[in-house]
Specification:
The radius of gyration is 21 Å and the shape is globular. It has 229 residues and is mainly α. The longest helix has 24 residues.
């Protein structure tokens, strides 16, 4: 009986889309793990992620992803931002700077495509959660003794803020606290009470940090929205 070998299995590794996709998974994990700590490192890892993801993209499959509302809505917002700055009378350097935040939305269709084919989304989510948990523990230490603060590009702002600023830290902790609600309920449903308790304690620790160490008005506004969603 003849065994059918997939076409991708006969390709050299540097031409195999699956190999490129695995490499993209690694840089996606590195990007989210460094996100709570730095601004330059995530940008570097995301740039490399884009480069290694491109050889893994099937054009027809990617066009199918672009036809979905979750993909063309971010593209529409970017086009709207570009059209908006055309009315500006400022220099082009200022216009390009104004478009920069909206340009980040262009990454979303590529993210949708990547994790439509990747089986390692749990790695990415786990890396971000672990990184934020480590930052949260350091935040408690900095609240006790400011000398534990890490000064990377600039001095940290606020009480109990090791890196970046209190707005970014509060938003990251709020996101983790909300995201932990689903696995806690799922683990309880499956009878895995120890893991459910561990995740629940971690989520409460994020909330307590926001209550007693530092919280931003932005996080207070976005937290009910995330709960409702």
């Amino acid at each position: 009986m003849m065994t059918v070998v997939p076409a991708s299995a006969t390709l050299p590794r540097w031409r195999d889309p699956r190999a490129w996709l695995k490499t993209a998974d690694v840089f996606a994990v590195l990007a989210v793990a460094s996100l709570p700590w730095s601004t330059s490192l995530p940008a570097i890892f995301i740039a490399i992620w884009l480069i290694v993801l491109l050889p893994a993209i099937d054009p027809r499959d990617f066009l199918e992803v672009l036809r979905r509302p979750a993909s063309y809505v971010p593209l529409a917002f970017f086009v709207l931002a570009v059209v908006g700055v055309l009315w500006s009378e400022g220099p082009w350097s200022v216009r390009f700077y104004a478009i920069k935040p909206a340009a980040k939305l262009l990454v979303l269709p590529l993210l949708f495509y990547h994790f439509r084919h990747s089986t390692r989304i749990v790695w990415v989510l786990g890396a971000y959660l672990a990184s934020c948990a480590l930052l949260m523990m350091l935040s408690w230490l900095v609240a006790y003794d400011p000398r534990f603060a890490l000064k990377l590009n600039e001095a940290p702002e606020g009480y109990g803020v090791p890196v970046k600023n209190y707005i970014a830290q509060s938003q990251e902790f709020a996101l983790c606290a909300i995201a932990l609600a689903w696995p806690v309920m799922d683990l309880i449903r499956r009878g895995r009470y120890r893991w459910a308790l561990a995740f629940a304690v971690l989520g409460v620790a994020f909330i307590l940090n926001m209550m007693f160490v530092t919280v931003s008005r932005t996080a207070l506004v976005t937290l009910p929205v995330m709960i409702g969603a």
